[in-house]
């Protein structure tokens, strides 16, 4: 079975309900941008790239199934209004806002054509939204290639083990994944010893989603709790074996500061302490040159109940009984809760940013300059010469 978080065809969109994984595979139909907004807000679909794609396609199916005005300007205004609404679903990942900006520009260009009507505006929008599914997989395969090459080069000979956090695979994107794409490429290259994945409390993207993907792909993998990461890196010989910690990103600021799933920052600290490389894997759609540093990134806070309760199938002593799911309390009633969904890792703790067209390293000044690096990468400068600006 191919892991498909998003199923789209003209007029129809279904998303894999990730609150039900790994024990139940259920697809929810998304008919409107409102359905899309709620699916993203509820985290039935999640992952920075996937959020952007589901939002864009939720509006595409709404447009395809709605009788719209023949007036191009009215349709363009409707699309703009819906995109502005969709962007409010989750604030930290930049991919959604970036996609909305690009789609608005495409609609604006279409509405300036000599021959235009409502239908031509809808077609321009839907074609661009559908292209996001294809481009994202291609981007992720590039991230996998360059990330694997960088780690293999750093490690020299032999196989490498890597640790990853949260879920950045086919369930967070249109397919293949970002940090998990690097793991897939190492595995396909025959250079992966083992992948370690953290549980990633409180949503458990790691134990429920990344572990699900690694088992599905028959990749040698070990699940650890978030609190075990430093002990793992300290294991005698582990730092030789664990070549890198590779994580995804929700927003990379112009100076390289990176917002990612809560718990990422402390992984970067322990990686630096143990002399293990720390890498961020992100397509260029996650790099936000308008945000100068991590201090300017809005961190989403989620409801406390997502930490104090857990939901899952009953365990009958032998196996899970998926027909009987239940919610259990795992915290004292009345305790206050702080539940930020993300944290910011400062650029100084990041050794490289893996993009779909190359790995960005720091310049001789010890700083990332992603504005310059993106210009160079966009002009086709070879990845090996990135950095040192
Ligand atoms: C390639 S997914 C990037 C990013 O998104 C995840 O957040 P969430 O599960 O809350 O949507 C996580 O931070 C991943 O690293």
TrEMBL record:
GO molecular function, one term: S-methyl-5-thioribose-1-phosphate isomerase activity
GO cellular component: cytoplasm; nucleus
Residues under site feature: Transition state stabilizer: 166
Residue positions of the active site: 250 (proton donor)
InterPro entries referenced in this protein's UniProt entry, alphabetically: IF-2B-related, IF-M1Pi, IF_2B-like_C, Initiation_fac_2B_a/b/d, M1Pi_N, NagB/RpiA_transferase-like
Pfam families xrefs: IF-2B
GO BP annotation list: L-methionine salvage from methylthioadenosine
Pathway named in the protein's UniProt entry: Amino-acid biosynthesis; L-methionine biosynthesis via salvage pathway; L-methionine from S-methyl-5-thio-alpha-D-ribose 1-phosphate: step 1/6
Catalytic activity line of the entry: 5-(methylsulfanyl)-alpha-D-ribose 1-phosphate = 5-(methylsulfanyl)-D-ribulose 1-phosphate
Record's function text: Catalyzes the interconversion of methylthioribose-1-phosphate (MTR-1-P) into methylthioribulose-1-phosphate (MTRu-1-P).
Name of the protein described by the UniProt record: Methylthioribose-1-phosphate isomerase
Origin species: Meristemomyces frigidus
Underlying gene: MRI1
């Amino acid at each position: 079975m191919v892991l498909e978080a998003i199923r789209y065809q003209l007029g129809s969109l279904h998303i894999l309900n990730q609150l039900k994984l790994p024990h139940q595979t259920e697809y929810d139909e998304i008919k409107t941008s409102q359905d899309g907004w709620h699916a993203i807000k509820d985290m039935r679909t999640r992952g920075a790239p996937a959020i952007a794609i589901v939002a864009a396609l939720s509006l595409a199916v709404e447009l395809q199934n709605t009788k719209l005005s023949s007036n191009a300007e009215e349709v363009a205004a409707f699309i703009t209004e819906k995109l502005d609404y969709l962007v409010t679903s989750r604030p930290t990942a930049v991919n959604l806002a970036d996609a909305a900006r690009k789609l608005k520009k495409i609609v604006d260009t279409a509405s300036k054509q000599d021959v235009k009507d409502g239908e031509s505006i809808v077609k321009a929008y839907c074609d661009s939204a559908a292209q996001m599914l294809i481009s994202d997989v291609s981007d992720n395969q590039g991230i996998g290639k360059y990330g694997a090459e960088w780690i293999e080069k750093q490690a020299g000979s032999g196989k490498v083990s890597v640790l990853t956090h949260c879920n950045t695979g086919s369930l967070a994107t249109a397919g293949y994944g970002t940090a998990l794409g690097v793991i897939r490429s190492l595995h396909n290259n025959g250079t992966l010893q083992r992948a370690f994945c953290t549980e990633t409390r409180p949503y458990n993207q790691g134990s429920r989603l990344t572990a699900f993907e690694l088992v599905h792909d028959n990749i040698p993998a070990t699940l650890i709790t978030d609190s075990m990461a430093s002990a793992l890196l300290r294991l005698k010989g582990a730092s030789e074996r664990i070549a890198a910690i590779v994580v995804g990103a929700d927003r990379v600021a112009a100076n390289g500061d990176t917002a990612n799933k809560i718990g990422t920052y402390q992984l970067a600290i322990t990686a630096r302490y143990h002399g293990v490389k720390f890498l961020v894997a992100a397509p260029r759609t996650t790099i936000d040159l308008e945000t100068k540093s991590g201090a300017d990134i809005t961190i989403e806070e989620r409801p406390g109940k997502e930490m104090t309760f857990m939901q899952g199938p009953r365990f009958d002593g032998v196996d899970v009984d998926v027909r009987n799911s239940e919610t259990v309390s795992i915290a004292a009633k009345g305790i206050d809760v702080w539940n930020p969904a993300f944290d910011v890792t400062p650029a100084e703790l990041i050794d490289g940013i893996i993009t779909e067209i190359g790995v960005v390293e720091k310049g001789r000044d010890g700083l990332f300059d992603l504005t310059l690096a993106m210009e160079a990468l966009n002009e086709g400068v070879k990845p090996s010469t990135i950095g040192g600006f």
